[in-house]
Amino acid sequence: MLHVRVISPEALTERALDALAGDDGVTHVIVLTGVAREPVGDVIEFDVVRESASAVLDRLRGLGLDRVGAIVIEKVDTTLSASADRAARRVPGLGVDAVVWHEIEQQTGEESALSASYLAFMIIAMVIAALGVLLDQPILIVGSMVVGPEFGPLAALCVGLVKRRAPLVRRSVLALGVGFPIGMVITIGVVWLLTAIGLVDKSMLLADRPLTDFIWRPDALSWVVGLLCGVAGILSLTSAKAGTLVGVLISVTTIPAAANAAVALAYGVRDEAVGSALQLLINMAAIVVAGVLTLLIQQVAWRRQERTG
């Protein structure tokens, strides 16, 4: 369930309430007349089950309340209410399967920003992965996957393509197109520095690395894993299951592949650099393809359920 707070100009308040009154998924409606100061207006608060949220928010935005007022959405973790239970029963489907598009667009839009923290996490993750490659330590590879911020822009790219949001697509491509090269360049510099002071050397890259050599040896299973992770990642976002998303992050070798390519470039090992780059491209393409298909299927399935429900 979601809690929604709306600031509405007095002239639109009744129309907003009418938009809520006809929806079975809305409950706990509160109206506070004239209490809002910035922007000026009335405050309407209500709870809505996730299955109805997108339709309700579309109606409110259709009144222009996101422009002349405000619409704030919050997740509700626990609700002890017979009225809320009735609302959930009246609306077809399950909340965990519902896609609240406004929530997903906002969340992924924030994660696609090319910010200083995004670049910092990208660099840190890639350097950790580079050390994992040289030391043949899977624990460092897993750590870099968790730290890496790349899934946010990838998910935003999927949402932007499905919802045809050109600005979201551009921001996502920019974040990926700038973040990975910067991370790789910094990683190359770090490898050269560590080599100069004698902490690592080229022989560590050329030695047998049975635990991490999969990173630069892509095969058909790389595509399969990328597809599965793309599906799981998008489902974890649309169903608001953060724990599942962590599992996705430690299953995709995007950051490790980029780091392996950077280390190989630093030492001039061409075949390993090419293999790592190919692994990176395969995983990113598979995630985007799977993410877009998952969102399209969810969109079609939910619309069909609304018509038959």
Describe this entry's structure for a reader.
There is one protein chain. This protein has 309 residues and is of the alpha+beta class. The protein folds into two domains: 2-98, Alpha-Beta Plaits (2-Layer Sandwich), CATH 3.30.70; 104-305. It has helices at 10-21, 50-62, 65-68, 82-90, 101-111, 116-135, 138-147, 151-163, 166-196, 202-206, 220-238, 242-249, 254-267, 270-308; strands at 2-8, 26-37, 40-48, 70-75. The protein has a four-stranded antiparallel β-sheet. Helix 8 (151-163) runs antiparallel to helix 9 (166-196), helix 9 (166-196) crosses helix 13 (254-267) and helix 13 (254-267) packs antiparallel against helix 14 (270-308). It is elongated, with a radius of gyration of 24 Å.
Annotate the secondary structure layout.
Layout: E1 2-8, H1 10-21, E2 26-37, E3 40-48, H2 50-62, H3 65-68, E4 70-75, H4 82-90, H5 101-111, H6 116-135, H7 138-147, H8 151-163, H9 166-196, H10 202-206, H11 220-238, H12 242-249, H13 254-267, H14 270-308
Antiparallel strand pairs: 1-3, 1-4, 2-3
Helix pairs in contact: 5-8, 6-7, 6-9, 6-13, 8-9, 8-14, 9-13, 11-12, 11-14, 13-14
Pfam family, one: DUF389
Protein name: DUF389 domain-containing protein
Keywords: Membrane, Transmembrane, Transmembrane helix
